[in-house]
Amino acid sequence: MTTDVRDQLYELAEAEGRTPSGMIGKLISEYQWRKEVEAAKRAMREAPQEVWDEYMREFYEIDAAFSGGPRNEPS
């Protein structure tokens, strides 16, 4: 680890009230979460149309249940 990186780590950790080790743990967790979100977005983009159709049907059913009735649901 270079001194610049070490200094940045200590600065970030201090600003968040964490130890350097705790800061690394937080950064790793955030990185893993971003990777999972990217994978989910990719899976959504690649999903076949019938998956999206079913998703939207369920969405409108749930929306109608919570809003007191159907609204502008596409046919």
Would you give an account of this structure?
This protein has 75 residues and is mainly α. The chain has one domain. 80% of the residues lie in helices and 0% in strands. Helix 1 packs across helix 2. It is elongated and about 60 Å long.
Write the layout of secondary structure elements.
Blueprint lengths: L2 H14 L3 H27 L2 H19 L8
Gist of the model:
The chain has 75 residues and is mostly helical. The chain has helices at 3-16, 20-46, 49-67.
Keywords, separated by commas or semicolons:
75 residues; mainly alpha
Alpha carbon gap, first and last residue: 59 Å
Q: Which residue ranges are poorly predicted, with pLDDT under 50 across at least 5 consecutive positions?
A: none
Query: How many domains is the backbone divided into?
Result: 1
- Strand segment tally: 0
